[in-house]
Every structure is written in C-alpha cells, then in structure tokens.
Amino acid sequence: MARVRSYMLQWDPSPDADVAGYRVYWATPPELVTYDSPHVDVGTSTSVSVPTGGMPTSFDGYMTFGVSALDDVGNESDISTATLPFDLLAPSAPTNIRLG
C-alpha cells in the first residue's frame, strides 16, 4: 500500500470565552461546505491532521475545508471556509526491477 503525506489544517481560535470545541467540514468543489457536509468534531484543538476519519483517502485536487466553533450549550457559529490544494495520490510504483 502506498504512503501519502498528511497535512495539518490549522485555524485561529474563536475569541469567545464559551467555545467548547470546533467542527471541521469538507467538500470537493464545486460543492460548497454547509452544515450538512461531512464533518468531524475536534474538541478544543485549533488544528487537525488531515485526512481524518471519513475524508477521502485517495484524492488529488482542491478541497474546501470549513471550521465552525461550538459553544458550551451546543450553538454553532458560521462556517469559515478555505479552498486549498490537497494531494493524497501517491505516484505509481517503479516496475521491471532487475540486476544489471
């Protein structure tokens, strides 16, 4: 099995004192990130290694990521988004290995 690079997706924290965690969304353009998009809750961390659970593991192109803040009673902020290049395709393996 090929090995692909992981990326660290990072964001600045919400300035609100009652933030209890963050939710990371993703979509592949031309789809937009919405509250119905696939997502993962990442706790109070302001970064996550991607790909993460549920994300495509074989992908090369642009992906739109979204991050929202959740407060201590479950309210969710607007989703901040960024469309970024994302390469999870390893090159093909060499062939015809031999002694010369």
Short structural summary:
It contains no helices and six strands.
What are the segments in which pLDDT stays under 50 over at least 5 consecutive residues? none
What string gives the helices and strands in order? Answer: EEEEEE
Number of domains: 1
| Percent of residues in helices | under 10%
Describe the structure.
This protein is an all-beta fold. The chain has one domain (7-87): Immunoglobulins (Immunoglobulin-like), CATH 2.60.40.10. 0% of the residues lie in helices and 40% in strands. It contains no helices and six strands. It has strands at 7-10, 19-27, 39-41, 47-50, 60-71, 80-87. The strands form two sheets. The protein has a four-stranded antiparallel β-sheet with strand order 3-2-5-6, with no helix packed on it. A two-stranded antiparallel ribbon has the order 1-4. Strand 5 and strand 6 (80-87) form a beta hairpin. The relative contact order is 0.29.
Key features of this structure:
mainly beta, two-stranded antiparallel sheet, Immunoglobulin-like, four-stranded antiparallel β-sheet, 100 residues
Itemize the secondary structure elements and their pairings.
Blueprint: E1 7-10, E2 19-27, E3 39-41, E4 47-50, E5 60-71, E6 80-87
Antiparallel strand pairs: 1-4, 2-3, 2-5, 5-6
